[in-house]
């Protein structure tokens, strides 16, 4: 996009301005003598105080916008900076001049803008505070050292000291210095919970991560164990599961030991104390006996609660440590790779998003399944002792549940694995969509991508439904199986003629309802183990991926920099696709759907040789040019020297450090300065030399905050030229020995390219070894030697003159090029864009540059729209993610209910829970009625007399009691199945509806949203938040609803038996609600902070994967790993605090629930005789059940609310995002053949990219006739590409109108407009899928038409030679094609569309000259009947245009035929052509 105009910040004072003017004059006087010095000449000694020390205060220098670059631009425009091979002395002579200029500027301080700490990009206090916080991690961190002594357990054992005095700093995690009391009660988090209630939590309130839980520490430990495993077992035999066991076994064994104690205490309460207490109620034993049993019951439960707190404390920390270790190791693995191989970015991000949680659950909850078998064995033994062998029938029901649960878990695991694969595909697709969203909008391909996403989501939902239903049945059976087991046991026992007492029945009921039910609920965690193992296998698959074996050796000759000795090198390439999943659908339907084409899964890699038998030796300081056609292997040649390929045979030698400039610049989401420094110390003198050399001074000056301006992801707010020059500046500042430049001039015009070649390649790098890939043949005579590549072979090698004399292929290519230039010059149609600041594709919000001197006189009047003043804080592009405060609004719940089907459906689903729980509760009540009825006063004969029987088997209504009791089994099972199905359907309907709504809303958002929102934040919504809504929210909510009804039934029973309990219940309820209302705020705030902390981590991972080649080339792996560790630690910290806050609440609620049981026991003690033992036992059993379930339910309500923060985030996106205009407006649809003529009219067009940014088009007016070919030129920021932005309505106009064939385009639907236009962008975009899908996603054209388009773009032979031809795979970002080949395919895409209007945005930048000339002929022939607007930097691309449009500062400067413009020697265009002559004919 185009930049805002260049306003100098008003804060600069008059004295500073006077100095600028003085300096400008001195620059103008010395302009002809200026030259860029050698970068390495700025030694550490020279730099002296200019080198910024750690934590020192620095001045954030801002180069002046107008004058700083004046000598550079003037000398170049006048042709005085041209460089000859013998002119080295000019650089040496004038080195002192430019040094003096920079020193004067720095000393005077006119570049000063603001004073900040030496901590990178810091435009606001929040950023500075965050940087300070990140630095604390370095201060607190401890390094892992392997130890076999017992002392390694010392930090953990200190937690068992009863009370410890805290020695931790205020911002350190308090748990590290807490004693036994704090460790068990979580009192160390109380202050944070209270602060959250009083003021709400902010980022600075949260302590930093514990040093023992940090990612770096645990990754190092885990990595050492993994390396030992691989060394011992080999890669094929290595098992990450074994390493995980070694990593956590000590803590796991200790936690399980304590867990066993809680199980024992859980058994002791009901089996001993409660049974004897109920027995005591029906006897005449003294009160003291009852008191003993009551105290014993309460005390055993108290011990269980406390020790359970210890279990969670240990497990939580174990979980966060393994989570950090696994993902830290994955990231470090990525750092050692040059590409992802057969993994996609989406798959990697999904691993960080969802597998992290599954690993944590695997450690924290998975081991609890041991409770199931222990409880089963204990329960069987006790019941056998209590009731005899007939009880085994009931136990058989319970034991049969184990294989059933195991089968359920296996099925869940299988479905989960399939679901994860589909989720990976969806996240990968979303990541690709976000990367290419601009092109998708311009091509009006939203429907194609939306249908693909919908197709994947449909498959994902289908699998989620199966998984959720299976899981729901499992969850519903957990509380019902113990009840069914009890029913069967009692029926068998009584049916055999045995008696059943209240003590026996309710003791057994409590065992079933509390202990065994908990044991069964632990069995539900089997699926967590299955999921955890699945995640560990996914991680292992990444850890076992082949790393590139280092093959670079050091040459023996100290004067040699690079040697290639018969080297054959290969790339990893896609070899096959898996398409089994859609086989049935494909058989039914001819052809393959777009979604099918897009979604095939890469399953295998093979090596494809691309460079063959290379022999080359490069001396130190030599400049080697590499040229060749599209796909000849030029970029691979650079990669071979970086060590990023696979050496098949031969040797590669390289001596020294490397700097790399890629063909497509990789830009970080950081400040402009940080992108150049890339972790290096800031040396002001060296830094500004680089800025001068790369012609960036005016660009920096035009930015809102100078070089502190934040650059968006992928350089979204920079133009193509700025990105390339920034990448070059990064390389130059790095000061390396060998410079590998992969076509760095493709994104700049000939004049700026000449400037860079002279000032950088032949100037600053004159004593460096430079390998220079280029399509610009005019520079080859000035290189020491030329390498001409053809099909991966060195076809010709030598000096330019010798190769020309040889008169082979190279000579012919060069002569053709020069003849073309000379012929075109004679035609006087030279229209090359040659502005002093640099050619660029303006897709930016903020870009460099201001007006060129001499261009203003012909400018139109200023726009009437008020301009926006620039402020220092304007440099912040990316908006901070909003951290929500307060309660989850009712509107969020309302939205979720409506998405689920509405209030009636939701009420019916809730009633199914009531029916299910009510049937189990009724069975217990029926049993108590039966026990209370006893024998029904039936008399039995004993000896010679009759007595009233005390055996309920003698009751005359026995059959009725048995029938009703037995039928309840069917009712319980039936309601369980209905409940599971109904709940699954409604919750997944809700999540799918929410996904569809947020997807449409995001996709329909204007480009400004994507410019200011990091992709990681959006991916967070579609990965982790959707996972929460799909899986976590339903699971939590289902358990919560179930427990609500269980609590209701329990309290109803207790109150019916003991009406005196009601006053206590009211007090307890108030106490419960008070605690919950206060401390749910802290839990909710922690969850929100955890949600927000994930986005920067995902963005960092995505940025890293995209920039692996650059990061590895500069050796910055440690810097990026360190940043990842800190971002992960920030997430770990709030994630750990969220879980601890939940447990803090749980243990307090557990103790309050203990009061319920205590009061019930005391009431039964006091009211002995007035309440029947059978009903007193029922009340006690349900009160005991409340002890665990009450706190769990209150905690679940808080957790449900916390998890609803994900629903709220999705809801906010759905409701708050602005939308583009409608895709189709039925009442305004154009004719089917519109545009018929292709006439375009701009009338007083004003355009700004966002409301708070300046105008980039300022009232421009011009007309383009039918079939005209218009060339657009102008300097950086002049508004060239903004013409296209206005034409395609990527941004709505601030004023004026654009008409096509007389139709105002602002009234049309966007799809109707964009589908009738074509664009060929500068940055070639290919999607994952097939070649055919990339050319024709809607399958509108025949294969013959597709082949014809490929033939016209000279790609037919390439595609025809691929094994699958049109169905050949295209991997992520089109990495299996060269950049030039990608551009040709984009051109074929436009040829297929064959629209009446074509916009070419420098579309041939990465294509060699010969192919470019052919393409130009193709365009002239194929689009003869089209109106074409061409932005280009190659002379022969626009010189044959009908008219030339010269833009400057968003205004039309000139618009006439090339001949008329050239006739006026004072015209801006004539001056540009004059400058171009010296650039093109060196």
Explain this structure.
By secondary structure, this protein is α/β, with parallel strands linked by helices. It is 57% helix and 11% strand. The strands form 7 sheets. It has a 6-stranded mixed sheet with strand order 8-9-10-6-11-12, with helices on both faces. Strands 20-23-24-17-25-26 form a 6-stranded mixed sheet. Helix 16 runs parallel beside helix 30. The two termini are 32 Å apart. The model is unreliable at 1-94, 108-123, 575-603 and 827-874 (pLDDT under 50).
Topology:
Elements: H1 14-30, H2 44-47, E1 57-61, H3 70-77, H4 88-108, E2 112-117, H5 125-140, H6 154-157, H7 180-185, H8 190-198, H9 215-237, H10 240-281, H11 287-335, H12 345-364, H13 371-387, H14 392-435, H15 437-442, H16 446-495, H17 502-523, H18 526-543, E3 552-553, E4 560-578, H19 583-588, H20 594-598, E5 601-619, E6 623-628, H21 634-642, E7 646-654, E8 658-661, H22 672-677, H23 684-693, H24 697-702, H25 720-734, E9 738-742, H26 750-764, E10 769-773, E11 785-790, E12 793-798, H27 800-806, H28 809-826, H29 890-900, H30 903-933, E13 939-942, E14 945-948, H31 958-1003, H32 1007-1012, H33 1015-1057, H34 1061-1106, H35 1108-1114, H36 1117-1166, H37 1173-1216, E15 1240-1247, E16 1257-1264, E17 1269-1274, H38 1280-1288, E18 1295-1300, E19 1303-1304, H39 1310-1314, E20 1317-1320, E21 1329-1330, H40 1331-1335, H41 1343-1352, H42 1356-1360, E22 1369-1370, H43 1379-1393, E23 1397-1401, H44 1409-1422, E24 1427-1431, H45 1435-1438, E25 1443-1448, E26 1451-1456, H46 1458-1463, H47 1468-1480
Parallel strand pairs: 3-7, 6-10, 6-11, 8-9, 9-10, 17-24, 17-25, 20-23, 23-24
Antiparallel strand pairs: 1-2, 4-5, 4-7, 11-12, 13-14, 15-16, 15-18, 18-19, 21-22, 25-26
């Amino acid at each position: 996009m185009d930049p805002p105009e260049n306003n100098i910040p008003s804060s600069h004072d008059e004295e500073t301005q006077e100095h600028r003017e003085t300096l400008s004059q001195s620059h103008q006087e010395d302009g002809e003598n200026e030259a860029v010095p050698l970068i390495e000449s700025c030694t550490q000694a020279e730099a002296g105080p200019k080198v910024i020390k750690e934590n020192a205060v620095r001045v954030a220098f801002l180069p002046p916008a107008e004058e700083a670059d004046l000598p550079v631009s003037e000398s170049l425009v006048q042709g005085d900076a041209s460089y000859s091979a013998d002119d080295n002395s000019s650089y040496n002579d004038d080195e002192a001049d430019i040094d003096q200029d920079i020193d004067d500027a720095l000393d005077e301080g006119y570049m000063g803008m603001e004073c900040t700490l030496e901590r990178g990009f810091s435009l606001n206090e929040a950023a500075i505070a965050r940087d300070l916080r990140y630095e604390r991690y370095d201060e607190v961190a401890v390094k892992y050292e392997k130890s076999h002594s017992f002392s390694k357990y010392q930090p953990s054992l200190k937690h068992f000291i009863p009370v410890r005095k805290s020695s931790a700093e205020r911002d350190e995690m308090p748990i590290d210095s807490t004693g036994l009391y704090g460790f068990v009660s979580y009192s160390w988090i109380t202050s944070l919970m209270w602060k959250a209630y009083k003021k709400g939590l902010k980022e600075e309130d949260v302590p930093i991560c514990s040093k023992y839980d940090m990612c770096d520490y645990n990754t190092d430990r885990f990595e050492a164990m993994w390396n030992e495993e691989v060394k011992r077992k080999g890669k094929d035999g290595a098992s990450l599961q074994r390493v995980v066991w070694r990593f956590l076994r000590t803590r796991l064994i200790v936690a399980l030991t304590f867990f066993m104690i809680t199980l024992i205490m859980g058994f002791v309460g009901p089996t001993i104390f409660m049974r004897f207490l109920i027995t005591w109620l029906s006897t005449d034993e003294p009160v003291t006996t009852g008191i003993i049993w009551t105290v014993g019951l309460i005390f055993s439960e108290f011990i269980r609660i406390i020790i359970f707190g210890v279990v969670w404390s240990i497990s939580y920390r174990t979980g966060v440590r393994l989570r950090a270790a696994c993902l830290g190791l994955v990231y470090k693995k990525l750092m050692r790779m040059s590409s992802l191989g057969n993994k996609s970015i989406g798959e990697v991000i999904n691993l960080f998003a969802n597998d992290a949680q599954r690993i944590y659950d695997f450690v924290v909850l998975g081991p609890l399944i041991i409770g199931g078998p222990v409880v089963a064995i204990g329960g069987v033994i006790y019941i056998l002792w209590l009731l005899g062998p007939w009880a085994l029938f009931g136990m058989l029901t319970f034991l049969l549940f184990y294989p059933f649960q195991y089968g359920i878990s296996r099925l869940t695991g299988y479905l989960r694995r399939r679901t994860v694969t589909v989720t990976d595909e969806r996240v990968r697709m979303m990541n690709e969509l976000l990367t290419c969203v601009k092109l998708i909008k311009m091509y009006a391909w939203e429907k194609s991508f939306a249908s693909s996403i919908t197709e994947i989501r449909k498959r994902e939902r289908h699998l989620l439904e199966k998984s959720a239903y299976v899981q729901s049945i499992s969850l519903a059976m957990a509380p019902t199986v113990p009840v069914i087991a009890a029913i069967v046991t009692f029926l068998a026992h009584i049916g055999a003629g045995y008696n059943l007492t209240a003590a026996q029945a309710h003791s057994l009921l409590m065992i079933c309802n509390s202990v065994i039910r908990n044991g069964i609920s632990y069995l539900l965690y089997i699926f967590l183990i299955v999921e955890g193992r699945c995640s560990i296998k996914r991680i292992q698959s990444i850890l076992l991926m082949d790393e590139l074996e280092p093959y670079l050796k050091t040459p023996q000759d100290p004067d040699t920099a690079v040697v290639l000795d018969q080297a054959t090198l290969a790339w990893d390439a896609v070899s096959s696709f898996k398409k089994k999943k859609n086989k049935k659908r494909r058989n039914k339907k001819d052809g393959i759907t777009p979604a099918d084409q897009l979604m095939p899964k890469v399953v295998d890699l093979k090596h494809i040789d691309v460079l063959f038998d290379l022999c080359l030796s490069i001396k130190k300081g030599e400049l080697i040019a590499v040229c060749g056609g599209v796909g000849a292997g030029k970029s691979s040649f650079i990669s071979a020297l970086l060590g990023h390929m696979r050496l098949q045979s031969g040797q590669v030698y390289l001596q020294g450090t490397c700097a790399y400039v890629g063909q497509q610049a990789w830009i970080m989401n950081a400040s402009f300065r940080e992108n150049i420094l890339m972790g290096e110390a800031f040396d002001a003198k060296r830094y500004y030399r680089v800025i001068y050399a790369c012609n960036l001074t005016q660009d920096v000056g035009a930015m809102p905050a100078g070089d502190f301006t934040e650059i968006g992801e992928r350089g979204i707010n920079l133009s193509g030229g700025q990105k390339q020059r920034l990448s070059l500046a990064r390389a130059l500042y790095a000061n390396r020995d060998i410079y590998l430049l992969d076509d760095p001039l493709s994104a700049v015009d000939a004049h700026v390219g000449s400037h860079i070649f002279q000032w950088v390649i032949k100037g600053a790098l004159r004593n460096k070894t430079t390998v220079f890939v280029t399509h610009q043949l005019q520079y080859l005579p000035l290189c020491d030697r030329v390498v001409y590549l053809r099909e991966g072979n060195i076809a010709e090698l030598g000096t330019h003159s010798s190769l020309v004399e040889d008169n082979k292929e190279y000579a012919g290519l060069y002569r053709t090029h020069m003849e073309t230039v000379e012929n075109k010059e004679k035609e006087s149609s030279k229209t090359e864009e040659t502005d002093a600041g640099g050619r660029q594709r303006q897709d930016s919000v903020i870009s460099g540059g201001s007006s060129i001197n001499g261009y203003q006189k012909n400018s139109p009047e200023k726009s009437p729209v008020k301009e926006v003043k620039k402020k220092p804080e304007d440099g912040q592009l990316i908006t901070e993610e909003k951290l929500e405060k307060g309660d989850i609004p009712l509107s969020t719940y309302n939205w979720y209910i409506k998405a689920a089907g509405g209030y009636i459906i939701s009420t019916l689903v809730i009633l199914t829970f009531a029916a299910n729980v009510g049937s189990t509760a009724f069975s217990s009540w029926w049993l108590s009625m039966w026990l209370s009825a006893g024998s029904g006063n039936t008399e039995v004969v004993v000896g010679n007399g009759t007595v009233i029987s005390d055996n309920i088997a003698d009751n005359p209504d026995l059959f009725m009691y048995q029938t009703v009791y037995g039928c309840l089994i069917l009712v319980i099972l039936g309601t369980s199945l209905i409940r599971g199905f109904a709940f699954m359907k409604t919750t997944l309907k809700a999540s799918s509806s929410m996904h569809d709504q947020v997807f449409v809303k995001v996709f329909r958002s204007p480009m400004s949203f994507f410019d200011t929102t990091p992709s990681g934040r959006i991916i967070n919504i579609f990965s982790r938040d959707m996972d929460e809504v799909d899986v976590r929210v339903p699971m939590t909510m289902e358990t919560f609803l179930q427990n609500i009804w269980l609590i209701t039934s329990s309290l109803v029973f207790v109150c019916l038996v003991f009406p005196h309990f009601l006053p206590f219940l009211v007090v307890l309820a108030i106490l419960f609600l008070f605690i919950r209302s206060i401390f749910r705020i802290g839990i909710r705030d922690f969850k929100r902070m955890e949600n927000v902390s994930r986005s920067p981590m995902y963005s960092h991972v995505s940025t890293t994967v995209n920039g692996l080649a650059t990061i590895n080339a500069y050796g910055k792996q440690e810097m990026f790993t360190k940043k990842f560790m800190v971002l992960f630690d920030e997430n770990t910290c709030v994630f750990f605090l969220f879980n601890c806050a939940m447990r803090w609440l749980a243990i307090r609620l557990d103790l309050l629930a203990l009061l319920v049981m205590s009061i019930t026991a005391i009431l039964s003690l006091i009211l002995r005789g007035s309440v029947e033992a059978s009903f007193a036992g029922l009340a006690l059993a349900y009160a005991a059940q409340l002890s665990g379930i009450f706190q769990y339910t209150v905690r679940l309500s808080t957790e449900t609310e916390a998890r609803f923060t994900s629903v709220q985030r999705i809801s906010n996106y759905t409701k708050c995002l602005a939308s583009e205009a409608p895709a189709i407006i039925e009442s305004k649809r154009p004719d089917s053949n519109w545009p018929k003529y292709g006439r375009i009219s701009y009338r007083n067009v004003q355009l700004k990219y966002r409301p708070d940014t300046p105008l980039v088009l300022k009232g421009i007016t011009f007309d383009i006739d039918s079939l005209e070919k218009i060339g657009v030129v102008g300097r950086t920021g002049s508004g060239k590409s903004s013409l296209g932005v206005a034409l395609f309505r990527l941004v709505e106009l601030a004023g004026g109108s654009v008409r096509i064939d007389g139709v105002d385009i602002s009234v049309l639907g966007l799809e109707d407009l964009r589908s009738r236009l074509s664009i060929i962008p500068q940055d070639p975009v290919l999607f994952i899928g097939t070649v055919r899908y990339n050319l024709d996603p809607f399958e509108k054209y025949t294969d013959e038409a597709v082949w014809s388009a490929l033939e016209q773009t000279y790609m037919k032979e390439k595609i025809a030679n691929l094994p699958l031809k049109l169905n050949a795979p295209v991997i992520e970002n089109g990495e299996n094609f060269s950049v030039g080949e990608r551009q040709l395919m984009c051109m074929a895409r436009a040829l297929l569309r064959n629209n009446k209007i074509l916009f070419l945005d420098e579309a041939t930048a990465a294509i060699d000259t010969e192919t470019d000339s052919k393409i130009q002929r193709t365009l002239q022939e194929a689009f003869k009947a089209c109106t074409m607007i061409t932005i280009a930097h190659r002379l022969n691309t626009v010189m044959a245009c009908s008219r030339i449009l010269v833009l400057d500062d968003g205004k039309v400067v000139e618009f006439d035929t090339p001949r008329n413009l050239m006739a006026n020697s004072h015209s801006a265009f004539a001056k540009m052509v004059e400058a171009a002559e010296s650039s093109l004919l060196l």
